[in-house]
Specification:
Elements (H helix, E strand, L loop, with lengths): L1 H30 L36 H6 L6 E10 L2 E10 L2 E7 L5 E7 L2 E6 L6 E4 L15 H5 L6 E9 L2 E10 L4 E8 L5 E8 L2 E8 L12 E2 L5 E3 L18
Antiparallel strand pairs: 1-2, 1-11, 2-3, 3-4, 4-5, 5-6, 7-8, 8-9, 9-10, 10-11, 12-13
Length: about 260
């Protein structure tokens, strides 16, 4: 009798062991694989996401040479602001005060020679004059390069106009304390490399440079935008015509031709 009980106990222990092994290894064969969780790539701290600032957050998109122009094109931009842009070309530095409001842009570019070139762009027309000759040149913005914010001052639109095949590098990068989308372009026919930094916060071009033979021969840097453009910012021509008033609707003048009156 005692031997029979011993055999029953051994059999019960064997059943328990088999059940435990089956639970650990055999059950997944019938129930299928366990779902896995893939963690996203960590986002570097201190870099804002395009479209995130002031909009309650957003989804960070990958920036590559193939996608960077689409990312920049999708950014929201300020409607009214002012800032100072500094341009250095072959060691010569000029400074431009820039005002933008309601689709109008004015840039007063002060050259080291003492000459100040004034440019206003709006409603498809460009007006330009200088402080020594107040004759006003005007032309259709669609007829050629506008150079919207004054001479040699690129904008984010110049980045969008780049040949995608020339873009060799792109990503996120901090520039002068601002989180930016970075674009690098090769210009082999000129043995140059061009670099652009577009603010991830407001979509404006914050900096640019051109390098030749390892030397930076051109650079552009902008201060942080002040919002909105000041009420006293002038979009008036030297002949007294008012093209635009800050905060008001545009005034359609219909000015055409290569040159208007002085």
């Amino acid at each position: 009798m005692e031997g029979k009980n011993r055999n029953i106990l051994v059999a019960l222990i064997a059943v328990v062991i088999i059940a435990a092994v089956f639970s650990s290894f055999g059950l997944p064969l019938f129930t299928g694989p366990t779902a896995t969780i893939t963690l996203p790539t960590p986002v570097p701290t201190g870099v804002e996401q395009p479209g995130e600032s002031g909009q309650g957050g957003g989804v960070r998109v990958e920036v590559t040479p193939d996608t960077v122009q689409s990312v920049i094109a999708a950014m929201s931009r300020l409607e009214s602001y002012s800032r100072v842009v500094t341009i250095t070309l072959e060691g010569i530095t000029s400074t431009a005060q820039v005002w933008v409001d309601g689709g109008w842009t004015r840039a007063d570019l002060a050259l080291p020679t003492g000459l100040t070139i004034h440019t206003i762009v709006g409603e498809g027309t460009v007006w330009r004059w200088n402080n020594n000759d107040r004759s006003i040149l005007t032309w259709n913005a669609a007829e050629g390069a506008v150079d919207v914010e004054g001479q040699r001052i690129p904008t984010y639109e110049d980045v969008l106009a780049l040949d995608p095949a020339s873009i060799t590098n792109a990503g996120y990068e901090n520039k002068n304390g601002s989180a930016c989308v970075y674009v690098e372009v090769a210009v082999p026919e000129l043995a140059q490399v061009e670099r652009y930094w577009v603010s991830a916060d407001n979509g404006l071009l914050m900096a640019a440079e051109t390098e030749t033979g390892g030397l930076v021969v051109y650079s552009m840097a902008a201060t942080a935008a002040e919002i909105p453009a000041p009420a006293w910012a002038s979009f008036d021509l030297p002949d007294g015509r008012v093209l635009h008033t800050v905060g008001e609707e545009d005034i359609a003048l219909g000015v055409e031709g290569e040159q208007a009156g002085s």
